[in-house]
Amino acid sequence: MKEKIIAQGAEAILTKKGNILTKDRIKKGYRNEILDKSLRFKRTKHESRIIEKASKFIPVPKILKTDDFQIEMEFIEGKKLSDYLDNAPQAEQIGICKQIGKNISKLHENHIIHGDLTTSNMIWVNQIGHIKKQGAEYNLKRTNQHKIPNKYNNSKLYFIDFGLSFHSQRIEDKAVDLHLLKQALESKHFKNYEFLLKECLKNYRWSKSQAVIKQLEKVESRGRYKGKH
Known about the structure:
With 229 residues, the chain is α+β, with helices and mostly antiparallel strands. It has helices at residues 33-54, 81-84, 90-109, 171-188, 193-202, 209-227, and strands spanning 4-8, 12-17, 20-25, 63-66, 70-74, 79-80, 112-113, 122-126, 131-134, 137-140, 155-159, 166-167. Helix 3 crosses helix 5 (193-202), helix 4 runs antiparallel to helix 5 (193-202) and helix 4 (171-188) crosses helix 6.
């Protein structure tokens, strides 16, 4: 089975082979070689550890192997939210935003800052299995319910790409994380970003969520102030 490059950025190359995704941190020729190796090594290990920690709270790719400058993880087969969200039915958009809010809540409650909360870094996966109608009855896979389950509640939203993530207990850092989400929704999903953001924040609930949202308002006001000068 051949490897296929599926993405290449300034920091890393992503290749897919079967159901395995490999992230290789790119060598920077302009940096001192010793410094370059040290930075790539530290950032690779750091990202791998954060993904491992986040996996205890939210859906993320499973880490299979970590080498000096490379992470091997499972490839998540699903819909990239940046391409899908605008075309989803409103009921499904609500279900997606519900999971966005819950996922961020769990990360922040455990002091993980994602650092790049865009819909390009979210994968929507239907986990319900196949539902086959047979006369008046239904064969429901992966459920013991006696009725058709709500497919949006039985789907999973995976967060990916923790390359800019870090640990922090600061309310400010968590507010900036939400601010990045707001900017991403406004730029990529501008037609109904206010509705989407409202649904996300409605489900952003943990012991200090109100303090973070209050700080978010201050972060935004600073941005508006700078824009006038």
